[in-house]
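Annotated sample (chain length 259).
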Amino acid sequence: MPITRARAQGLLNATEMRLYDDSRSNALRQLDAAMLKTRVERTRRARERARDLVQRQKLASRATTGSKRGRTGLANQRSKDKAELLDDILKRFEGALKAASARKPAAKVAKAAKATKKPAAKKAAKKTTRTTATKKAAKRTASRAAPRKVAGDGAAKAAAPRKKATRAQTAARKRAKAIAAEKQLLEEKTARDREPKPWQALDTTAAPAVAAPGFQSASAASKAMRLHAGESRMKPIHGSVSTRGRRNQGKRDRRNSAG
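Output written by the structure step:
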């Protein structure tokens, strides 16, 4: 019966809709015999369930309809349409399976024909291989009998070691130049480090010497001490300590005099 896809979606669940899609013409061409057998079995089970449901609904509605068949008008029509749709899907799968089964013997015959052709092809290939091997052997014999060009080969072999030697010499020269440049830079750095510093030249002594660590003069040391005392609030701290000391001593004196 002609049922559109929209109508089929109202009758079938998601699993059954996949069977409906696979039963379309384009989808059937992509299924082999094994896939078709699986879908035939699934569709047949779904159709049997739908038919059982229709039968149960008929038996249940006999008491209310008064009909032996158990249906009046549109009662149970949806279940009946679903069963008929699944039966149509099953017929499509079964037809495609028959066509696929008919194609198998033809494929077997073609394979057998190919199998019979293979020995002949192998024999022809062996003959071609033998002919080619014979030609190669003849060429080798001719090449061995022909005189060799010793002078040309010797010149080519002599030129190859020369090229290799030239490349090695160039690489060695580059490495030697790089090492010489590094040595020169190291010597210049050492000489700069040994030279007296500009501020050392201001000393009155004949040979400039590096100054001793610490303050340069007594005035600088006293100035640094004053700066440190101001930053650390040394005087307020000392005054506070002496005030607390006098107070504590007064408390002790009062306790001794009271005793």
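Annotation: The chain has eight helices and no strands.
Annotation: The mean pLDDT is 76.
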